[in-house]
Every structure is written in C-alpha cells, then in structure tokens.
Amino acid sequence: MAPRPTPARSVAKPSDARVPLDTGKVARDVRGVAALEALHQQKTMLEKEITREVRAARRAGVTWTEIGQAFGMSHQRASKHWGPDPVKKLRLPRER
Length: 96
What we know:
Strand content: under 5%
Helix content: 40-55%
Largest sheet: none
Low-confidence stretches: none
Number of helices: 3
Number of strands: 0
Structural class: mainly alpha
Oligomer: single chain
Shape: elongated
Order of helices and strands: HHH
Distance between the termini: 96 Å
C-alpha cells in the first residue's frame, strides 16, 4: 500500500499578519474595515434601488407572488418587506 500524501499547509503571507502596537494591542486591519464600510454602503444603495423597482413593478401590475418568487420568498414575506402596498389608493375622507 502506498503512503498517503500529507496535505499541503497554507503559508501565511506577510500582509496577513497583524502587527502589535507599542501598547501591546493588536493593530486593526484597516483595509478590512474600509472594505466592510464600502460593502455596507453598496448594500444600502441596492436596497433602495430594489425598493424602487418593486414599487414600480407593483404599479405596473406585477403581483406579490411574482415578486416573492423573484427573491425566493413567499408573497406574504415580500409584501411585508416592501409594503405598504403603493398600489392601494388612498382613501379620501367622505364628504358630508
């Protein structure tokens, strides 16, 4: 029987290492924090764009079922997430 090969071990790159500060604390990975902030901004912008598109789709007659299917969720969850329904007309006060 042939010997089993040993798995390759990953070698840490110098850029992956965290350098201790003079205070003894580990330095934060500033690039990682900046990347998270950028992703959060992109997520916020995408959520706003999705909301605009969902409302436009509702005005065009697309059902909550169709919208839910596009996002892999039920129509109830879709309508709760992006509601209130902009298609419903505002009720005007009754004239007396």
